[in-house]
Amino acid sequence: MTILKATDVGISFGGVKAVDGVSFSVSPGQILSIIGPNGAGKTTLFNIVSGVYTASRGTIHLSGENVTGLAPHKLAERGLSRTFQNLQIFQRMTACENVMVGRHLREKCSLVPALFRTPSVTRQNRETRAAALDLLAEVGLKNVADLPAGSLPYGACKRLEIARALAAEPRVLLLDEPAAGCNPVETEEIDHLIRQVADRGVAVVLVEHDMKLVMRISDRILVLERGRPLSEGTPQEVRDDPKVLEAYLGQHGAREAARA
Amino acid sequence: MRALISQRLIILAVLALVIAVLPFVFPSSYYFRVASLVWVSALAAIGLNILMGQAGQVSLGHAAFFGIGAYAVAIGPAHFGIPSWAALLLGAVLSAVLAYLVGRPILRLKGHYLAIATLGLGVLMALVITTESGWTGGPDGMPVERLSLFGWRVSGSYTWYWVTGGLLLLGTWIALNLDDTPTGRAFRALHDSEVAAQVVGVDVARFKLQAFVIAAVYASFAGSALAFMNGFINPDQAGFIHSVELVTIVVLGGLGSVVGSIVGAAVLVTLPQALTVFHEYEHLLLGLIIIVSMIFMRNGIVPSLSALLSQRGRS
Predict the structure, then answer these.
(1) Is pLDDT above 90 for A180?
(2) Is A52 within 8 Å of B182 when comparing Cβ atoms?
(3) Rounded mean pLDDT of chain B?
(4) Beta bridge partners of A206
(5) Residue B215, Cβ neighbours under 10 Å: how many?
(6) Whose CB has fewer CB within 10 Å in chain B, the N or C terminal residue?
(7) In this structure, how many other beta carbons lie within 10 angstroms of the beta carbon of residue A165?
(8) Chains A & B: contacts with CB separation below 8 Å
(9) Does position B62 have pLDDT exceeding 90, yes or no?
């Protein structure tokens, strides 16, 4: 059963085809990794799928519905959530508030009760904060819950983004380099976290440069090169694909690797 | 969270105390008038601060809504025989509707472009008020009928001191309420990162519009209050200089700080009064003081001082 399906997606900036004819699909509980050299179009693909960019060709289906060209907040309403490669933290808010914003769609958000602070608003706030603190505990940030997010170190911000994305209770989660800048221990924690999320039935799409992590946790891998799909399959299949070796290591390196 | 609630109550209690105690030290009715001006300016600035400080959207034409509120209570009773209190509400509704209609297209703009578009709105409103002299009295302005509520005629500096003080308390309470709600968080989130707010489901256009409408309604009420208090209104209230004054109050006091807007209003309204002893150097000194305080308190008076105090407390 497919929940997210991209078909023949492409986008051009000026004359450059940043993404060109890429298709993939992912099912609930599955982890799909998208890898490729720098500039392969991984983040651009994420931006198309999450509605930040509008594809110039191809379609995106979410739970069977054609969602091509929908605004990001509309996609969020339909259960898609994501993190960013270049951090997009709400710097002036506390870590806890960052995650509370993630609960936005789970909250009643009418203006008049907010202005006069009815008891229901206070009650909802308490529930949202409790849920946010649980998520912060899950990513190991509970002790910094009330610090300004702008003051947190890089690795913590990465995990904060994951917590914020999870707060929306997504059915599809796009993670853009969650382990970038993390030490081995933190990477290990992120590994566990991603597995837990997938075990709950969330479809995870992962862009990541840490190949050990990718090979360990992916069900399937899609390799991009210069915006085009190069290879797709299980980690084993992709690892043994000579085209992939060539793209990563060059022709000479691929021959060396084949000999070894 | 509990700390936040009590902080809100403390701010309201201190403000109420200040409003209640000031009359005991005021030597003349002139002081009541100046203080009322502070309360009115603070009210408008608190609203603008929700737009600028919380949601991060600039408005350089905000006096337009101040003008609508002021002229609504002047024109409504004079030309249409509407009771003053109804004209006050009508002004607020008109401001909200205009903010909604104008905000929808222009809030798509960002940064400098939004600044110019709102500037245009302000200039346009001032132009309409000055040229439609049959309705507005043109550049000379027009008298405003006294507000009467249930047969009580609200007049005199002393009375208006309490009425505007009460309005300010109400406006402060509402602004503080908003901060820690889904709406307030959405404002602050889209200020820091629009794209991140969007991907967790915040409809950025809708919340920018909400902030713009809230700010417009605050300005409208402040404008109505000033018109009633003065018994007279002229186009300067809706003009560019007044828009800039409002922005200055917000930035000087501290973006995003409710207390900052009150302090900023107090400084910007009382300073010129205090500086009159310097005669022709008055404006020079005022400008200089604003420049120097922005250099040394870059985040505005209240956020800078509270940061300084908490640093002292720690060391």
Answers:
(1) no
(2) no
(3) 92
(4) A33, A175
(5) 29
(6) C
(7) 27
(8) 106
(9) yes
Residue boundaries of the structural domains of chain A: 4-91+165-259
Across the beta sheet with A228-233, what order do the strands follow?
A80-82, A172-176, A203-207, A31-35, A220-225, A228-233
Secondary structure of A59-109 in the HEC alphabet?
EEEECCEECCCCCHHHHHHCCEEECCCCCCCCCCCEHHHHHHHHCHHHCCC
Cβ of residue B155 closer than 8 Å to a chain A Cβ: no
Which of A149-163, A237-251, B201-215 comes out lowest in average pLDDT? Answer: A237-251
User: What is the pTM for the complete model shown?
Assistant: 0.92
Instruction: Please state which of the four CATH numbers 3.40.50.300, 3.40.50.920, 3.10.450.50, 3.40.1190.20 is assigned to the domain occupying A4-91+165-259.
Output: 3.40.50.300
In this complex, which of B181, B188, B199 lies closest to A90 when CB atoms are compared? B188
Q: Which of B305, B307, B271 is nearest to B288 (CA)?
A: B271
Cβ neighbors of A123 (< 8 A, separation 6 or more) are: none
- Angle B111-B114-B115 (CA atoms, 0-180°, nearest 5)? 85
Q: In terms of Cα–Cα distance, which of A229, A230, A205, A233 is closest to A20?
A: A229
Upper half-sphere CA count for residue B155 (Cβ side, 13 Å): 10
SS3 of B154, please?
A: strand
Task: For residue B177, give the nearest of A52, A97, A114 by CB distance.
Answer: A114
Residue of B173, B199, B203, B299 to mutate, testing the A interface (most A Cβ within 10 Å of its Cβ): B199
CB B175 within 8 A of CB B50: yes
Residue in the structure block whose two tokens are 């003080």: B165
Strands A203-207 vs A16-26: parallel, antiparallel or unpaired:
unpaired
Select the residue of B181, B197, B203 nearest A125 (Cβ to Cβ): B181
Other Cβ atoms within 10 Å of B170 Cβ, number: 12
pLDDT band, very low/low/confident/very high, at B1 (cuts 50, 70, 90): very low
pLDDT higher than 80, residue A258: no
Q: What is the DSSP string of B3-39?
A: HHHHHHHHHHHHHHHHHHHHHHH--SHHHHHHHHHHH
pLDDT at A197 over 50: yes
Q: What is the DSSP letter of B141?
A: -
For Cα atoms A196, A202, A206, give the angle at the middle one, nearest 5 degrees.
80
Query: What's the mean per-residue pLDDT of chain A?
Result: 92
Residue to mutate among B200, B202, B206, with most A CBs inside 10 A, is B200
Mutation target for B interface from A52, A92, A104, A110: give the one with most B CBs within 10 A. Answer: A104
Work out the percent of chain B whose per-residue pLDDT is above 90: 76
Identify the three-state secondary structure at position B315. Answer: coil
Please give, one letter per residue, the 3-state secondary structure of A183-245: CHHHHHHHHHHHHHHHHCCCEEEEECCCHHHHHHHCCEEEEEECCEEEEEECHHHHHCCHHHH
Cβ separation of A104 and B202 shorter than 8 Å? Answer: yes
pLDDT value for A182? 83
Parse chain B into domains and list their residue ranges. Answer: 33-240
Residue A259 has pLDDT above 80, yes or no: no
Q: Do B193 and A90 touch (CB under 8 A)?
A: yes
Q: Say if strands A80-82 and A172-176 run parallel, antiparallel, or are unpaired.
A: parallel
Residue B142 phi/psi, 5-degree rounding, is -150, 155
Distance in angstroms (rounded) separating the CA atoms of residues A211 and B267: 59
